[in-house]
Amino acid sequence: MKIYENNGVFVLETQNTHYAMAVDCEGVINHLHWGKPCKIDDYKSVYKPWERNSNHSARDCCKTEYLPYCGSVYRPVAFVAKHGDGCRETVLTYDSHKISEGEDYILLEIELSDKPYSLAVTLCYKLRENTDVIERYTKIKNKSDSAVLLSKIASGEFNLPSKRPYLSTNTNGSWGGEFRIEKTEVKNGTLLYDSRKGGSDHTLNPWFILSQNADEKQGDVYFGALAWSGNFKVEINRDFAGVTRAVIGINDFDFSYNLRPGEEFITPSVYCGYAVGYGGMSNQMNAYAVENILPKRFAKEPLPVLYNSWEATFFDVSSESQQKIAEIAADIGCELFVMDDGWFGQRKDDWAGLGDWYVNKDKFPEGLKPLIDKVKSLGMRFGLWFEPEMVNPDSDLYRAHPEWTYHYKTRKASLLRQQLVLNLTRDDVKEFVFGVMDKMLAEYDISYIKWDMNRAYSETGAENLENPQELWYRHTAAVYEIADRLKAKYPDLQIECCASGGGRADLGAMSHFSMLLTSDNTDPVDRLEIQHGFSLLYPIKCMRAWVTDTNRYSRKNDFDFRFNVTMQGSLSIGGNLTKYSEEELEIHRKYITLYKEIRNTVQFGAFYRLANYAEDRIYATQYVLGSESVIFLCTSVNSFFNDKFYHIFFEGLDSEGTYKLTYDDKEEIYGGAYLMNVGLDFEIGGTLRSKIIRLKRI
Ligand code: GLA
């Protein structure tokens, strides 16, 4: 990695790419190149103001690195502000730059400013060793003595090289159907992906993936993923001249931020890169996230096999019933026991109790201690569910503090799941939330929290704020702040992020929480699609996946199939173990033991998708770490027409090495080059069939 600067030309050199930009003759930073590297001296400032005609201004057509709303500019912009004197335009020109080094990065900061208003906007680019991923964010500093109202502050704008249309990959998901991939060709106009619900939501993802002629192993793929769990906006535009640009950041819908004199606002980061093939993209981001995005304390540690009580007991928890399940969970090999919803306040169902974070005495007459002692005596750690941002109207908290929710006095509050959202932009509410969790952590030996969030915001009045439109930023920032404070006070605490499953499955959540739920849907067939979408840009390790009793659609699937799907992430167990036969428990024991043998490879290995799930109706993934590799093959709905055999070309092996393959009680020996170039046929015909193949270099 290296950053070159010469006469206003900047080149960011990553492992295999260049990202280049230059100050133009009007002082604006223009984008030059992103992709395969060239000779450094060949990069030159090329922009010459060229007005196509009176309808297509020079500025509107050029490749600006970060375009503010100003002058003759009519395309989607990255930045909009209203200055103290009422001027609603911002002109940003180059002021200075700085290159600095941190422990594991080099950082380029290019400071632009709007001179008459003493407003500084700094474009920041962080480079790290052995990767093509660049972390990009923007800092806005008000150096004047009057406030400036920011109404759009994207993290970055990206210009793509080719004039041919790009294929955009995002999702069209829902609750229980997160990460369902959709692809759209960007030919004209603006393609918009956003969330307005307060969280990043189940539907669309805060990322752009723009590709040409790409499959897993080839083609150009440009990507950028926003580390933000609140409202986001991704705009992808292709103009009449064929230039494709993407603007990504916090959503400007109903948003503004009053930047007072002397204040600085730092946008969330966007992690962007150029890769060859979707596989190249996923592999880069998988490794990069573990190395640089996940909270350091647990990033390099394998995640424990957890048991979660939700699908087994729902709200009907008690000390006795949980202890019974815990005994079996420990016996089959679980390492962490998480009690889900139902343990607090008057929580019998989802109509009451949220906000009352004290132990329910009817269910736990002696508090949680007997249960926790039991869990610990069984050799497991203990985890507890919270939904700290919410309150039920039927709760002591709401009766005492109805004013603590977002609300308008003239409007009837919309309930969703019988609950309201607490106004976390209030200091007293923030302290309350931190306080109740802190109290439980101080009193009990809790090493894991499942932090849930189950509804979208509405009636977002926040009288406490001088500018209530800041709540869209401040609420999410408060969530991160509370999680960080808890981790600072309890360094061994792990926090799982859940928002009705995958409603907050984004890199922002991953940078503050150790792992997350990708979906409430534990049906193994549906999971294949969900896991496929998640694996595109997010780290495999973070993906909690549960083996449960689910058989929602009466599909006949056995535990082998469920485990083989679920072991492709962080294995978790969620069925009602007290109802299982000894034979079923033995299957659990067998797979949990197996998972512990392969989990380092799955959670930290290089990751490959070996099949095209949509076309081949087979989900095939491979993980490689050092001398070990593991492959999962899972079929969804196969028909008689499909071949009984599926041919696999292995990936990521040592071509000089010799490997022992173990599958179906067979052992075979092959060279790495043979496995990758010739490949092998595996018998996997039929519906809902699965197979695991293990490789060891000998
Ligand atoms: C949400 C979560 C579930 C479970 C329930 C509890 O739906 O996604 O995993 O915790 O809440 O009410």
Q: Features of this protein?
A:
alpha+beta; 15 helices; Immunoglobulin-like; binds alpha-D-galactopyranose; Beta-galactosidase, Chain A, domain 5; 10-stranded antiparallel sheet; 38 strands; 3 domains; 698 residues; TIM Barrel
SSE blueprint:
Elements: E1 2-6, E2 9-13, E3 18-23, E4 29-35, H1 58-61, E5 79-82, E6 93-101, E7 106-114, E8 119-127, E9 134-142, E10 148-159, E11 166-171, E12 181-186, E13 189-194, E14 207-212, E15 220-226, E16 232-238, E17 244-250, E18 257-259, E19 264-266, E20 270-276, H2 277-293, H3 296-299, E21 306-308, H4 310-313, H5 319-332, E22 336-339, H6 369-377, E23 381-386, E24 390-391, H7 396-400, E25 420-421, H8 427-443, E26 448-451, H9 471-489, E27 494-497, H10 507-512, E28 515-517, H11 524-535, E29 543-547, H12 559-566, E30 570-573, H13 582-604, E31 606-609, H14 613-616, E32 618-625, E33 628-635, E34 645-648, E35 658-663, E36 666-671, H15 672-677, E37 680-683, E38 690-697
Parallel strand pairs: 21-22, 21-30, 22-23, 23-26, 26-27, 27-28, 28-29, 29-30
Antiparallel strand pairs: 1-2, 2-3, 3-4, 5-10, 6-7, 7-8, 8-9, 9-19, 9-20, 10-17, 10-18, 11-12, 11-14, 13-16, 14-15, 15-20, 16-17, 24-25, 31-32, 32-33, 33-38, 34-37, 35-36, 35-38
This protein binds alpha-D-galactopyranose.
